[in-house]
Design a protein that fits this description.
The complex is a heterotrimer of chains A (about 375), B (about 220) and C (about 400). Chain A has 15 helices and 10 strands. Chain C is built from 13 helices and 12 strands. Chain C starts with a helix and ends with a helix. Classes of the chains: A alpha+beta (about 375), B alpha/beta (about 220), C alpha+beta (about 400).
């Protein structure tokens, strides 16, 4: 493009202004990437749940357990291939701020149900051989500086008392949004020491044919409908999605803020472009006398605002990818928090739109400028 | 047929109070290769006439035919293309782009053509050579004197090889010595390069150097 | 000698587009700030209001939420007999041993909401803070009647008076609606504790709320309760307990408000800097004249900073106007200590509006300072020379 030099020269004639505008666009796109990534991480969290696993819980509410005897009844239901169960422990490690999730699981059935949890077979064996053994995520090991074989103590909130666990295994998830900050320990250990009757918090059911998951779910709920504890069964994905909606309408909030950021920066960028073009009225008039068409002059203005905006976008998005992409703190609050390539592309598209719109008014002004008036004003 | 033919050219401005007649029924023929000067008091319509001939403004009535094309019937884009190929405009205040070097300023009109980079360079160098500024090519306008700036302006006006040069008080902002240089240069454009020149000026001495002098007063042209 | 503010006002009016776009940019920043803070304040207020400073909440030792607590009847009876428990005119102790469960109920707009079902003693209306029946009447003991918090009525069907709400495998007749000063109680269903106990979790209460005889002596009360080996309980001032439940989420929201608005503010300040530099550059001759007339550079600096602050003030005011309509808007999130949904209203308080304006003014000062300094440092001669050109 032979007119690139003119655009470049115009961009660099007031360097401070261009840089400030580039940075304000950068800041906006940084925020966009940060916020959008919250949404993609939340979406990913609800995607984590498998569609080929079912969660059966007490219909009254998740805090109500189910009888252990349901295990056999579930196994006998047509279409059920495997059954496992787990409990929420809700313990505190030293301080309630050190939050992480602990599950009491049935070691014999749970890990074959969750191939996402990848553990060294020798470690799994060591875990199985130790009553108070625990398997924890790699992320937790790093967060608390734990080592294999270490004994940790959790304060029970639901199950009172101090609970000792020996770390016998470390898992890595096969997918980052599954999260590497969970802890698993023996279901039997929980109820042998709690003094309460053993009651699973929920069952995990694998249907023999994943395509029939919803039918199996309906069959399960049907068979418990008239028992003391009716059940509610749904795919794990739907179950997880339910947890995500508990945050409230995060998507709406992010969109509102995103829109406000967009318009705030649009105003900044458009104002800059208008100031620039106001100062150059005379030059546009000169170019017109030289035979530059109105359309070309408009395009030069838009090219300038587009350049500012795209450079700003690249700066902001890169900064976001670098600082937020692998952020430990964010990762522990929101597993799988990452600035995805699709987010970067969306951000770039927004930057382009921002550039086009902010150049619109001055571009029209340039095209409509009357040479005679402009030159007379100078003289 | 004359190179430039103005027929019954009329231009009026509407102000709040009244209609001001800037040009009233102006007729003019300019032959190819002529060197004309146009004088007149401020507000007499000199610049308006020049703007009309440059295709920058539209008359209320009448026609302008230049080199066989009736420019008063062209639309905006056609006029822009026509300007790029047929007229070179010289301004009183030079109007160079401060962010571009002398070379780049002169190159501006050529960016609208299909010339290659090398061809453009060659023609810009020729034009700057004509105005004796080959050694100032990489200078920015603020590094040049007024006279030098105006010579760059003239180089820009001739670089696309137009048939006609329109100069609006080209010496109006210059000291006597620089003005003399510019006038000599314009004479050379006419005699040596056979450009048709119309120069608007306040300066009687400058006007007299043209082949033909015209006087505009209250919108009426006296030849 | 000060340069009159009128001069700045005129200058702003001379370039309305730049003034307005810059002010509007700041307005959006202020609006986002106020909106996010209103969310955080609303959420925390709902929880703080839930608790009273005159009450003590008793939980089983080690339990961190009402959900995970459990207290036997004999412990409840022992506490009721303690001397620091306030009594009503009939000499009855003002104490409410409560059952607390969370059940999943269908929402009006689809999906499930986790709702707190609280079983209270008939004394609860005297113990708990500002609970008032707005429609219908209170439940009768032993009847299977329930009352519903007023924000829950809007979100969950079958909660109108006369309707039956189904949970825990049976129907419950809705006989009243209640309000509780915007607290999280308004997102709950209340019924009789004795009736809920067998239905849900057996012969155990979750918490005990009690009114103190002398609220100023609460430290001693807490100490006495926690020291008693027969009880094995933790006790807290009720207000603190509920306020703590909102600390984490409230803190996250507040952090987000400051972070997002702060980052946006950087962008808006850059815009203000551009505008002010442009203003300073285009008025170089005027500045020269002012300096030549004998105005001190300091006055010129102050004048331009004031001008920038005027833009910011306009932005702040517009921002407040944009944010004001969200006041009272009800939204919901989850109390992660009990996994129950809490509905609460955005609260745009006067203090918050003032904070928004101050925020804008700070942006104005930062945005105006460098350009103003440039104006003040300009040599008079140079500035005046530009008049001629």
């Amino acid at each position: 493009m032979r007119h690139a030099r003119l655009v470049w020269k115009n961009l660099t004639r007031n360097k401070r202004r261009s840089i400030l505008t580039v940075l304000s666009v950068g800041v906006a796109l940084f925020l966009f990437a940060a916020l959008q990534s919250v949404l993609t991480a939340l979406d990913a969290t609800s995607e984590v749940g498998s569609e080929s696993r079912l969660i059966t819980r007490n219909a009254t509410g998740i805090v109500f357990p189910l009888p252990e005897a349901y295990t056999q009844r579930l196994r006998s239901i047509n279409g059920v291939e495997a059954v496992s169960w787990a409990n929420w422990f809700g313990g505190t490690y030293i301080d309630s701020r050190n939050y992480f999730a602990q599950f009491a699981v049935d070691e014999g059935t749970f890990f074959s149900m969750y191939p996402e949890v990848q553990i060294d077979p020798a470690q799994l064996e060591a875990f199985n051989g130790e009553k108070s053994g625990a398997i924890v995520g790699q992320g937790l090991m790093e967060r608390f500086g734990w080592s294999l074989g270490q004994t940790i103590v959790l304060q029970g909130t639901i199950f009172p008392g101090d609970w000792e666990f020996v770390i016998r295994g470390v898992y890595e998830p096969d997918n980052p949004s599954f999260g590497d900050e969970n802890m698993y320990f023996h279901y039997d250990y929980l109820f042998e020491n709690s003094g309460e009757a053993a009651t699973p918090g929920w069952f995990i059911v694998r249907p023999s044919d994943p395509n029939l998951a919803t039918e199996v779910a309906a069959r399960i709920d049907g068979s418990f409908e008239n028992s003391s504890d009716p059940t509610k069964t749904e795919t794990e994905k739907a179950f997880q999605a339910g947890f995500v909606t508990m945050w409230g309408n995060v998507g709406f909030l992010v969109r509102v803020i995103g829109t406000a950021v967009f318009f705030a920066i649009l105003l900044v960028a458009a104002n800059t472009m208008m100031m620039s073009s106001r100062e150059r009225v005379n030059e546009v008039a000169v170019l017109k006398t030289l035979g530059y068409r109105d359309g070309l002059l408009s395009r030069l203005v838009v090219a300038e605002s587009l350049a500012i905006s795209v450079v700003g976008g690249v700066v902001g998005l890169t900064a976001a990818a670098v600082t937020l992409g692998n952020n430990e703190m964010l990762g522990s609050i929101l597993p799988g928090y990452a600035v995805l390539p699709s987010t970067m592309l969306q951000g770039l598209a927004i930057a382009i739109v921002l550039g086009l719109i902010s150049g619109l008014v001055p571009a029209r002004q340039a095209a409509r400028l009357s040479v005679v008036d402009a030159l007379r004003r100078v003289a | 047929m004359a190179l430039v033919e103005l027929r019954s050219l009329t231009k009026r401005y509407q102000t709040e109070a009244e209609i001001i007649s800037v040009l009233e029924d102006v007729d003019l023929n300019i032959e190819a290769g002529e060197y004309l000067s146009l004088m007149g008091p401020s507000g007499s319509g000199k610049s308006t006439l020049l703007n009309l001939m440059a295709g920058l403004d539209q008359p209320d009535s009448g026609t302008i035919t230049i080199d066989g094309s009736e420019i008063t019937s062209l639309n905006g884009n056609q006029l822009a293309d026509w300007r790029a190929n047929h007229v070179g405009f010289v301004f009183q205040f030079y109007n160079l782009l401060p962010v571009l070097t002398a070379f780049q300023n002169v190159e501006l009109p050529l960016l609208l053509t299909n010339l290659s980079k090398d061809e453009r360079r060659e023609r810009v160098e020729v034009a700057l050579n004509v105005v004796s500024l080959s050694d100032r090519m990489e200078h920015y306008p603020r590094q040049l004197s007024g006279g030098q700036e105006q010579r760059v302006g003239i180089a820009r006006a001739i670089v696309s090889d137009p048939v006609m040069i329109l100069a609006d008080e080209p010496t109006g902002d210059l000291d006597a010595a620089s003005a003399e240089e510019i006038l000599t240069l314009i004479e050379r454009l006419n005699s040596e390069f056979n450009k048709t020149v119309l120069m608007v000026t306040h300066d009687q001495h400058a006007a007299e150097r043209a082949h033909r002098m015209m006087y505009l007063e209250k919108g009426v042209l006296h030849q | 000698m000060k340069i009159p503010i009128l001069y700045n006002l005129r200058s702003l009016r001379a370039r309305p587009t730049a003034t307005l776009t810059t002010a509007l940019g700041m307005a959006l920043v202020v609006a986002v700030f106020i909106g996010m803070m209103a969310l955080s304040i609303g959420f925390q207020a709902a929880l703080v209001k839930t608790g009273s400073t005159e009450n003590i909440l008793v939980l089983r030792r080690g339990a961190d939420s009402e959900l995970s607590s459990g207290i036997n009847r004999d412990v409840a009876n022992a506490i009721a007999a303690l001397p620091f428990v306030a009594r009503d005119s009939d000499g009855e102790p003002l104490i409410s041993p409560e059952t607390f469960v969370v059940v999943g109920l269908e929402r009006r707009n689809g999906g499930m909401a986790n709702v707190v079902i609280r079983g209270v003693s008939p004394k609860a209306f005297d113990v708990r803070n500002g609970v008032r029946i707005t429609k219908g009447r209170a439940f009768r003991p032993g009847s299977g009647e329930i009352i519903v918090g007023k924000t829950l009525v809007k979100r969950v069907p079958h909660t109108e008076i006369g309707e039956s709400l189904r949970f825990a495998g049976r129907d419950w007749e809705v006989v009243g609606h209640f309000e509780a000063g915007g607290s999280s109680f308004e997102s709950e269903v209340w019924g009789e504790n004795e009736l809920f106990m067998p239905v849900f979790r057996g012969e155990v209460f979750q918490t005990i709320a009690l009114r103190m005889e002398d609220p100023s002596a609460f430290e001693g009360v807490v100490e006495t309760l926690e020291a008693d080996p027969r009880l094995a309980v933790d006790a807290q001032l009720e207000r603190e307990f509920y306020a703590n439940q909102g600390t984490l989420l409230g803190g996250i929201l507040r952090f987000l408000a400051v972070f997002i608005a702060g980052v946006m503010a950087i962008g808006a300040v850059f815009g203000a800097v551009n505008t002010m530099y442009s203003a300073v550059d285009s008025r170089a001759p005027e500045i020269g004249v002012l300096l030549a007339l004998g105005f001190k550079p300091r006055s010129v600096l102050a004048s331009f900073v004031v001008e920038s602050m005027l833009i910011a003030l306009l932005g702040g005011l517009i921002g407040c106007l944009i944010a004001l309509p969200i006041n009272g808007l009800v939204t919901s999130t989850t109390n992660w200590n009990s996994f129950s949904e809490v509905a609460f209203a955005f609260r745009v308080t006067p203090t918050l509006l003032v904070a928004g304006i101050v925020f804008a003014l700070v942006m104005g000062v930062i945005g105006g300072f460098l350009p103003a300094r440039r104006a003040a440092k300009r040599p008079v001669v140079e500035a005046l020379r530009e008049v001629g050109s």
